[in-house]
Design brief:
Its cofactor is FAD. It holds the Pfam family Acyl-CoA_dh_N. The protein is an alpha+beta fold and 416 residues long. The chain folds into three domains: 18-144, Butyryl-Coa Dehydrogenase, subunit A, domain 1 (Orthogonal Bundle), CATH 1.10.540.10; 150-256, Beta Barrel (Butyryl-CoA Dehydrogenase, subunit A, domain 2), CATH 2.40.110.10; 259-402, Butyryl-CoA Dehydrogenase, subunit A, domain 3, CATH 1.20.140.10. Helices cover 49% and strands 15% of the residues. The protein contains eleven helices and eleven strands. Strands 3, 4, 5, 6, 7, 8 and 9 form a seven-stranded mixed β-sheet that branches. A two-stranded antiparallel ribbon has the order 1-2. Strands 10-11 form a two-stranded antiparallel sheet. It is globular, with a radius of gyration of 22 Å. It starts with a strand and ends in a 12-residue tail after the last helix.
């Protein structure tokens, strides 16, 4: 009998049937077997929650563009926020486990995976990497319990890929306070977050600094973005700061330049490759099951050569992307990780994702555009994954600079 470890006492405990992690059809090479028995048990609980609690409502929430707040207590009970850091009562788990948690959520609903990644990845990591001990104690335990939800505000109405050099939101110091002015856009969780990590340019030294802006701060408003056709359950917001006053105690002392912002981004960028892998797993299962059940010309369409070509191609794109993603996590755990490696994984996985969702939609024919068959939700959501946390073009240039020594970004001189 396999065992898991009680993280409070350290004593081995027998694994229950709920802890057993069956292989996923899309994990063709069995990468989940790289996890310890304890980590597999954690992942099994996440999978069960996603399949039993998220899957039944995912289409409805996507159609209504409303966030399912009633899921948060169950999410909190999983205790998977901040798995990658050590807590007084819980050791740090591997990057492979934290990434596979994101994959499992994306396999069912990439909107919920994005919510989780913003809260437990970008927001929590910003405070963990750049905050003081007092700030970590003030906010992180509540974020782990999902009593306080976080957001991360970097992108702006006029700044996307070039935000590092063109940040328009400003911060100026007045005594023991900072006054923030400007706007942010595409801020996931922005409409309801209890705290938002805001990156703004200091008017005195022109450096980018990080601030935690709490809900209800005068001069700070958040407005839900409407008309979004991807990741519709994610509550993306336009944020405005009009003389918003933030105490010095809410400035992240370890965030003194954009290099510090990038420290956070490099931790999370590889995660989008895992989101893409999860979506490919989801549509692979949907297309395969449909092909086995759908009968045309007197036989299941899975018996047709062209349909098998679609299924095998989806599995191939998925498997190569998963291999890249796994290797990135191994390098992160070994502390031998480079930004360009995450950039290549994100680029390749999201390119593969676009093809995979298109082929899955094609397997379902006209039924593929009906929300009730789910593939169209993944099809639309793939477009957001393809673009956020580094477009294909930007990640191409990051890798290109790495392999040639020449920066081909607009306005950049060669570095060789």
């Amino acid at each position: 009998m396999s065992t898991t470890t009680d993280i409070t006492t350290g004593a081995p405990t027998p694994a229950t049937p709920e802890d057993v992690l069956p292989p996923l059809p899309g994990d063709f090479y069995g990468y989940a077997d790289l996890l310890t028995a304890e980590d597999q048990a954690i992942l099994a609980r996440v999978r069960r929650f996603a399949e039993e609690r998220i899957a039944p409502i995912a289409d409805r929430q996507w159609a209504s563009t409303e966030f399912p707040f009633d899921l948060l207590p169950g999410f909190a009970e999983l205790d998977v926020v901040g798995l990658g850091r050590a807590w007084p009562d819980r050791p740090a788990h591997s990057k492979l486990l934290t990434s596979m948690v994101s994959m499992e959520l994306s396999r069912i609903d990439p909107s919920m995976a994005t919510f989780f990644g913003v809260h437990g990845g970008l927001a929590l990591s910003s405070i963990d990497l750049c905050g003081s001990d007092e700030q970590k104690e003030r906010w992180l335990p509540a974020m782990r319990r999902m009593e306080k939800i976080g957001a991360f505000a970097l992108s702006e109405p006029h700044g996307g890929s070039d935000v590092a050099g063109g940040l328009e939101t400003t911060a100026r110091r007045e005594g023991d306070e900072w006054v923030l002015d400007g706007a942010k856009r595409w801020i996931g969780n922005g409409t309801f977050a209890d705290l938002v990590v805001v990156w703004a340019r200091d008017t005195e030294d022109d450096e980018v600094k990080g601030f935690v802006v709490e809900k209800g701060t005068p001069g700070f408003t958040a407005t839900k973005m409407e008309g979004k056709l991807a990741l519709r359950t994610v509550q993306n917001a336009d944020l405005t700061f009009e003389g918003a006053r933030v105490p010095e105690a809410n400035r992240l002392p370890g965030a003194g330049s954009f290099k510090d912002t990038n420290r956070v981004l490099r931790v999370t960028r590889g995660g989008v490759a895992w989101n893409a892998v999860g979506v490919m797993m989801g549509v692979y299962e949907l297309a395969r099951d449909y092909a086995l059940e759908r009968v045309q010309f007197g036989q299941p369409i899975a018996s047709f050569q062209l349909v098998q070509d679609h299924l095998v191609t989806i599995l191939g794109r998925l498997s190569t992307s998963l291999a890249l993603a796994v290797r990135v996590t191994q390098l992160q755990d070994a502390d031998h990780f480079r930004d360009d490696q995450a950039a290549l994984a994100k680029r390749e996985a999201t390119i593969a994702l676009r093809e995979a969702v298109a082929r899955a939609r094609e397997v379902l024919g006209g039924n593929g555009v009906l929300l009730e068959n789910k593939v169209t939700r993944f099809f639309n959501d793939a477009e957001a994954l393809y673009s956020y946390e580094g477009t294909r073009e930007i990640n191409t240039l990051v890798v290109g600079r790495s392999i040639t020594g020449i920066g081909a970004f607009v306005g950049h001189a060669p570095t060789r």
